[in-house]
């Protein structure tokens, strides 16, 4: 049975721009007050029923002639802190639509730009919620949004001038990122211009307009994407993995297609390998409740239809991590998959699966594989099957270079080709045998470079710097000063060490009054440091980056040749801190 499901709407932006506060207003909760430092550090999910949306929108539905046909909206709240880049990326990957939250007073910031990059790469349509319009001097909370915007258009008040200055500065910043944008009530071509919707999460101004346009645009332009077989086999993505009292290890997931039930077998494609397990329990947060809420606000479900945020309790999920894919499988498929996994895990033999047209081709392929130092697991006559794809995917879990299949003069159906693409298995199909190995070598090199680039974009770099005593701009909350980078590469949002102690977090780097993403050796820049103050630091001693333990192997693997002496100094510091 095919129905329209809830659009999955990711909410993202820079830290402290008001993402969770906006959602708190919609659902009438105070999740933000429960987060450490009032900053979101986990992905959350909230279902907002269409009835609630209709109540909040009120007369706007008639004004804009919109009839809501979707069952509601499923919001995903993502952290804005730079350290949570992977969480935001996951949120974008599973989203149908997005709200990019931007503080009107601050405009585009590093994580704003990063979020736009993910949305653009994943082709996710979005609108901009222009928050904190109540922080502009002269704000009149008695006016509704239409009246506020009329005041802006008349340009007779101080508020109107200030609003316009900030608004058009943002329009320019978005233009620099390749987006044409305008105020939502002035946009004529919704597929060509980005909607900017002013919002106050304190009094709710603009929230109705935001919900209305998200719902209307999603159901108008995404109807095909939202049509799902609600009784088909469920597909989900893991948001968070938690240890919870009374349940043990639990999985917070977004079910984006099909149905999932208690006692279903699920295939989990984990970074630590593919395996099969059985669902013991399903918990679903009540409507208008965030998934990060207390256990009492969940309901026990026998089955759940897409789209939904749910908590799964299952056996043997210790190796599951955020971002892993979950697929419901039939009992027979589960048994055959488990048999295949056990067979592969028992043997040390792994490698590339190859299919050829005739037996004679097999010998030539094996000989060429030896010359090119390519490990072949098996060569068979015939076409590639879905079972070959599954087996190659299991091999890939052990070593990424095995995530490929060679097809020499062997037919590859469109169905199998698409299945391979979805499973992340690369098929090399050529009529010239040496071409397979040439393209495979290029692929391996590109994969290694892509992996390296992804790791380097996420890890903390080694750095050493000193404060320039003549340039103390602000003594606390935050401590702002001028510094010189002595060695390494300085990036924002890193913990700092001085005298073998963590003394605070470097939040921002500025050069000539503009935020920059990094500062190299020899550069003199301004930085803001939270968690410390002028009277708590020693200006005569240098500062170092606290590199998380899990990052250090990558630092040595990829950066030791460039920063060897600094890395050795940092190793000595970390050793003293542990002692």
Characterization of this structure:
The structure is a single chain. The chain has 579 residues and is an alpha+beta fold. It is 35% helix and 31% strand. It is built from 16 helices and 30 strands. The strands form 6 sheets. A 7-stranded mixed β-sheet has the order 3-4-2-5-6-8-7, sandwiched between helices. The longest helix has 30 residues, at 549-578. 37% of the residues are buried. Mean pLDDT is 85; it is low at 29-42 and 80-92.
| Radius of gyration computed on alpha carbons | 27 Å
Are there runs of 5+ residues with pLDDT below 50, and where?
Answer: 29-42, 80-92
User: What proportion strand?
Assistant: 25-35%
- CATH domain fold name of the largest domain: Rossmann fold
Shape: globular
For the residues shown, what is the average pLDDT?
A: 85
Largest sheet: 7 strands, mixed
Percentage of residues assigned to helices: 25-40%
| Strand order, sheet with most strands | 3-4-2-5-6-8-7
> Tally the helices: what do you get?
16
State the distance separating the first and last CA atoms: 62 Å
Q: What CATH first level of the largest domain would be assigned?
A: Alpha Beta
How many individual domains? 4
Instruction: Say which CATH homologous superfamily of the largest domain is assigned.
Output: P-loop containing nucleotide triphosphate hydrolases
Per CATH, the architecture of the largest domain is 3-Layer(aba) Sandwich
Strand tally is 30
Overall SS class? alpha+beta
Give short descriptive properties of this protein.
six-stranded antiparallel barrel; Rossmann fold; Elongation Factor Tu (Ef-tu), domain 3; globular; alpha+beta; seven-stranded mixed beta sheet; 579 residues; 4 domains
């Amino acid at each position: 049975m095919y129905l329209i499901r809830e659009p999955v709407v990711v909410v993202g932006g820079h830290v402290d721009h008001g993402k969770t506060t906006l959602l708190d207003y919609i659902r009438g909760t105070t999740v933000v007050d429960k987060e450490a430092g009032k900053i979101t550090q986990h992905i959350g999910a909230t279902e907002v029923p269409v009835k609630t949306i209709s109540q909040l929108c009120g007369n706007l539905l008639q004004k804009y002639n919109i009839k809501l046909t979707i069952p509601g909206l499923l919001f995903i709240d993502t952290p804005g802190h730079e350290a949570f880049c992977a969480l935001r990326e996951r949120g974008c990957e599973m989203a149908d639509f997005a709200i990019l939250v931007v503080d009107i007073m601050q405009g585009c910031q590093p994580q704003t730009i990063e979020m736009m990059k993910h949305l653009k790469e994943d082709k996710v349509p979005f609108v901009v919620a222009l928050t904190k319009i109540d922080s502009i001097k002269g704000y009149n909370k008695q006016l509704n949004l239409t009246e506020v915007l009329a005041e802006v258009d008349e340009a007779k008040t101080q508020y109107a001038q200030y609003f316009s200055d900030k608004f058009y500065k943002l329009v320019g910043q978005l233009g620099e990122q390749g987006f044409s944008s305008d105020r939502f009530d002035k946009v004529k071509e919704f597929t060509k211009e980005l909607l900017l919707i002013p919002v106050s999460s304190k009094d709710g101004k603009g929230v109705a307009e935001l919900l209305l346009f998200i719902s209307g645009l999603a159901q108008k332009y995404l109807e095909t994407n939202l049509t799902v077989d609600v009784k088909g086999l469920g597909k989900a993505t893991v948001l968070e993995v938690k240890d919870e009292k009374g349940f043990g290890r639990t999985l917070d997931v977004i079910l984006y297609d099909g149905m999932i039930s208690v006692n279903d077998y699920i295939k989990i494609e984990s970074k630590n390998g593919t395996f099969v397990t059985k669902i013991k329990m399903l918990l679903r947060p009540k409507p208008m409740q965030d998934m990060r809420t207390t256990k009492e606000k969940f309901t026990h479900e026998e089955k759940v239809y897409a789209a939904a945020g749910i908590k799964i309790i299952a056996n043997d999920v210790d190796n599951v991590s955020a971002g892993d894919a979950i697929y419901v499988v039939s009992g027979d498929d589960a048994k055959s998959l488990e048999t295949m996994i056990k067979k592969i895990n028992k043997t040390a033999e792994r490698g590339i699966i190859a299919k050829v047209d005739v037996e004679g081709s097999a010998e030539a392929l094996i000989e060429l594989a030896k010359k090119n130092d390519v490990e072949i697991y098996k060569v068979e006559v015939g076409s590639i099957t879905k079972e070959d794809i599954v087996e190659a995917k299991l091999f890939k879990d052990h070593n990424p270079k095995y995530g490929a299949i060679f097809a020499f003069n062997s037919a590859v159906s469109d169905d199998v080709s698409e299945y391979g693409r979805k499973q992340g298995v690369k098929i090399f199909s050529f009529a010239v045998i040496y071409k397979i190995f040439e393209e495979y070598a290029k692929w391996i090199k590109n994969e290694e470079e892509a992996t390296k680039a992804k790791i380097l974009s996420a890890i903390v770099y080694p750095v050493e710097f000193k404060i320039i005593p003549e340039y103390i701009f602000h003594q606390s909350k935050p401590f702002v000063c001028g510094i010189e980078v002595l060695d390494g590469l300085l990036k924002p949002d890193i913990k700092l060490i001085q005298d073998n102690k963590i003394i605070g977090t470097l939040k921002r780097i500025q050069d000539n009054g503009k935020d920059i993403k990094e500062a190299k050796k020899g550069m003199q820049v301004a930085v803001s440091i939270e968690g410390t103050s002028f009277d708590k630091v020693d200006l005569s001693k240098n500062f170092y980056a606290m590199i998380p333990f899990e990052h250090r192997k990558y630092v040595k693997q990829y950066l030791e040749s460039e920063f060897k002496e600094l890395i050795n100094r940092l190793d000595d510091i970390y050793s003293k801190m542990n002692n």
